[in-house]
Design goal:
Blueprint: H1 3-12, E1 19-23, H2 27-30, H3 39-43, E2 52-55, H4 57-63, E3 72-75, E4 77-78, E5 91-92, H5 96-101, E6 106-111, H6 118-135, E7 139-143, H7 154-166, E8 171-175, H8 181-185, E9 191-194, H9 202-214, E10 219-221, H10 224-227, H11 232-244, H12 249-264
Parallel strand pairs: 1-2, 1-10, 2-3, 3-6, 6-7, 7-8, 8-9, 9-10
Antiparallel strand pairs: 4-5
Helix pairs in contact: 9-11, 9-12, 11-12
Length: 265
């Protein structure tokens, strides 16, 4: 692996081999989703607990302070909206020159396996890898499922992750599922866990993150379970303890409650 690729991966994956990515890219298909109307304000109190931001170029330029920023994973796919016909109909939206100009540590895009647009989005990934490898920029593939949430099982996700790795993704972002070790065991590159829908309790979040880490994930890419929470700082600190300090779910819950009680004083 070339020095530039190693260096960029080291920026987003810390020396313990773990990572906590904070995604604020949801607006590229959801618009001004709840509590992300002003992304810069949303992340101000929690960014210090993250290792990298996953963001579009528009929000990066308009909302993120270039003088005091985390490493950036740039969202480079899009072209469909939540009210459109099919979320899977994505293309590459951002050039490699733009990624270099923005000095990003990695780029990310979605692939929609098993949909009408499977071939298109997989070729998006392959072509992006071809360009990014020339310049030592890691590509993170996101195994998206659009609105078809029932696809989030180990058999489907292991297929998606393996294909993404085979096409050259350096990191794969996927959903946690039962028997998650079947997903990680079949993928030769690091896997980070996507957040998905909000959970009913904090402990549920800590449980699935802990289980995923125990079964081979290197970290998480969680947004809405943090910045849509009434106590985002407490959530961020607790999640960081699971990822980087190997805290068990109940220990993370104690950290969460301690931070929440501090905020009330």
């Amino acid at each position: 692996m070339d020095w530039g690729m190693k260096n960029r991966l080291a920026q987003i994956i810390k020396s313990d081999g773990k990572c906590f990515f904070m995604p604020v890219d949801h607006g590229y298909f959801l618009g001004p989703t709840s509590r992300l109307e002003k992304p810069g304000e949303t992340i101000k109190s929690i960014v210090r607990y993250s290792d990298a931001l996953f963001v579009t170029r528009g929000v990066l330029r308009s909302c993120i302070d270039p003088d005091n920023s985390l490493p950036i994973i740039l969202r480079v796919s899009g072209g469909s909206s939540v009210i459109g016909k099919d979320l899977a109909n994505e293309s590459i939206t951002t050039s490699i020159e733009e990624a270099i100009r923005l000095n990003v540590s990695a780029v990310g895009l979605s692939v929609f396996i098993g949909t009408e647009y499977e071939h298109q989005t997989l070729m998006n990934l392959a072509n992006l890898v071809n360009e990014c490898e020339k310049y030592g920029i890691p590509v993170m593939a996101v195994t998206a499922v659009g609105k078809e949430l029932e696809k989030r099982d180990a058999r489907y996700l292991s297929l998606c992750c393996r294909i993404a790795a085979e096409l050259g993704a350096r990191v794969v972002k996927t959903y946690w599922c039962e028997n998650f070790d079947k997903v990680t065991n079949g993928c030769p590159v690091p896997i980070v866990i996507a957040g998905g829908p909000k959970c009913d309790t904090e402990l549920q979040v800590f449980d699935f993150v802990y289980d995923g880490m125990q079964k081979g994930a290197i970290g998480v890419n969680l947004g809405r379970n943090v910045w849509q929470h009434p106590h985002p700082v407490a959530m961020a600190k607790a999640l960081r303890s699971v990822i980087h300090q190997k805290a068990a779910p109940k220990e993370a819950l104690e950290i969460f409650n301690e931070e929440k009680n501090k905020a009330k004083k």
